[in-house]
Amino acid sequence: MTDSTLRERRGRTDPVLAHWRNAVFTIFALSGFVFANWAARVPNIRDILGASTQEMGFLILGMSGGAILGLVASSHVITHIGVNKAIRWFLAAAAVGLIAAGLIAGYVPGFWLLFVALMVAGAGNSVLDVAMNVAGAANERRIGKTLMPMFHAGFSVGTMLGAGVGALTEQLGVPVAAHLGVVGAAVIAVDLWVVRYLQPAEEPHETEGEPAGWRTRLSAWTDPRIILIGFIILGMAFTEGTANDWLGLAMVDGYGLTNPGGAAVFAVFVTAMTAGRLFGGAALDRFGRVPVLAGSALLALAGLLLVIIGPTAPIAIAGAVLWGVGASLGFPVGMSAAADDPRRATANVAAVATIGYMAFLVGPPLIGLLGEEVGLRNAFLVVLVLVAVAAVCSPAARKPKHLAEDA
């Protein structure tokens, strides 16, 4: 009996692995839940601050800048404290940033105070992002089944629930401080409970003739395949992040919807992403990473065009559905590809995530600046270019032959 068969049987019967899998799914969901509750209240916070579209772009840059700082440090931090501690501490940090953002917006509205709170949330979520993807890849290998799309579907479930909660609180007129404060406290409580079910995710760092240490971790940046995977994630993260940051506001300003209506369209987008990730695993198993990535890019392009040039709100909403499905698999497929080599998973995942998160650093101010001049819908044209780049780089996601042979 092969090792792969043993892992598969163990994955079906071992309750420890099943609890680990469910815990990782929950952690992905909590990460999405934190972000979506913030994103759903962006129009309301814009009104509280009296900020312009350009100013909101720079405010959102605070979360993106914190994310980049967290990603740069992530592989080193995770190596020193371990994957599970990183998940516990940095999910809590993201929730604390969310609570602070709500309190600042609700009681002492100030641009720079809110900027700092969003930096904390962004830094916490980015280290969490790397750690939970490493944990997911380790659990996937131990169980012997394709699980990464499902884990990222967990993130989408969290964003869907968060967007729904955000739309409901917006409709009911719940103060932003109360909304984000309660959500952040609940996330911390669930975090402390669910991490008890995680198992060690670390893989051996030593290989023959290769020393462990920070130089080994940084060597990911000299691997052409990892860089190209990073560009796949860059393009697909840009299209996903643009929707997260700006779709609700674009529907309000571009199609005359109310703030609750804009939040509801964002909920439609994340629901479409969730469906794409839940059913994407079957497509990946049948057609492979490269064709699925290319097809996803085409769907995202079609959806974007409908949102940009759609003559009516219903057509734009249909575009949001295609956009969501098209954007759904880019990030999980890229992360799975980066984690193909278990010995270098943390460093490789951190590297591609850092490249991908440049979309969240550059995207908000760029879309904000363009939106101020030409309108948000027209500003979305820049996203088309990066989606095309992701499609061109998609062959890099194919599993290397030497790793495929070892599987």
Question: Would you mind describing this structure in some detail?
Answer:
The chain crosses the membrane at residues 20-38, 58-79, 86-105, 111-135, 147-168, 174-195, 225-243, 263-280, 292-309, 315-335, 347-367, 379-397. Residues 225-407 form the Major facilitator superfamily (MFS) profile domain. It is found in: Cell membrane. This is MFS transporter. This protein has 407 residues and is an all-alpha fold. The protein is built from 18 helices and no strands. Helix 4 crosses helix 6 (111-143) and helix 11 (259-287) packs parallel to helix 13 (313-327).
Provide the helix percentage. Answer: over 70%
The radius of gyration over CA amounts to 20 Å
Distance between the termini: 14 Å
Give a quick account of the main beta sheet: strands, pairing sense, barrel closure. Answer: none
Gross morphology: globular
Mean pLDDT: 84
Q: Beta-sheet strand percentage?
A: under 5%
Helix-strand string? HHHHHHHHHHHHHHHHHH
Class by alpha and beta content: mainly alpha
- Number of discrete helical segments: 18
Low-confidence stretches: 1-11, 205-212
InterPro entries: MFS, MFS_dom, MFS_trans_sf, MFS_Transporter
Organism: Glycomyces mayteni
Subcellular location: Cell membrane
Domain Major facilitator superfamily (MFS) profile: 225-407
